[in-house]
Amino acid sequence: MSKAPTARLDRLLANMAYGSRREIQQMMDAGWIVLDGAKLRNASMRVAVTPDLVDRMTVRGKPLDPPAPLTLMLHKPLGHVCSHKEDGPRIYDLLPARWRSREPAISSIGRLDKETSGLLLLTDDGGLLHRVISPKHHVAKRYLATLDRPLKGDEAAIFASGTLLLEAEDKPVLPAKLEVLDDHRAYLTLTEGRYHQVRRMFAAVGNHVNALHRDRIGALDLPTDLEPGQYRVIDLEGLAPIFAGERV
What we know:
Blueprint: E1 6-8, H1 9-15, H2 21-29, E2 33-35, E3 38-39, E4 46-48, H3 53-56, E5 57-59, E6 62-63, E7 71-76, E8 107-108, E9 116-123, H4 126-133, E10 141-147, H5 155-160, E11 177-182, E12 185-190, H6 197-204, E13 209-217, E14 220-221, E15 231-233, H7 236-239
Parallel strand pairs: 9-13
Antiparallel strand pairs: 1-4, 2-3, 2-5, 5-6, 7-9, 7-15, 8-9, 10-12, 10-13, 11-12, 13-14
Helix pairs in contact: 1-2
């Protein structure tokens, strides 16, 4: 069994945006930081960063925020951008204010455009982020597309062929799986993530996407009880389905 990582208490709390190291010491002097029922006084003490720390430590009478590495499952609502810098509502505005100042920063794993809703993962774990978005890992992502015009019937074969070229590109998209639900709705599963790829693939076969929703990454489904704008912390066990069908 590997030992749990440890961190200086003041550095841990400062990285979690509870305040500067000086402010952390002031909170300790005031008795506001408690571990296992005992008020902590030494800001330089090292603590084991274990999952149960959120149940054992309080700051100002409230449970400690989840320490890094932190990964979230978010039901992205329409109208929000996956950027720290773009104007308009941001997905990060849906998180507690303190979480938006953490170090390392929480970032989205890939992006959904402003007019796309659905399953989005956010993390401060750079290794996980790279593993999910890296083209060599081929993590599948499924989208529900609602189309402007009826399907013609040949789209599944075209998308699966691996020969479809998108406008202004000279490299065909990888084979993708189309599951038709009715004349105007279909699931499209991709293993790559080009710019606006789903919309551009349907445009290439003469159709237009009116609505787009991602409901699955790997074998991880968006929970039916997670409403738009809601999020939940997800642990390593919960992340396992993402890589269930991974090809390396």
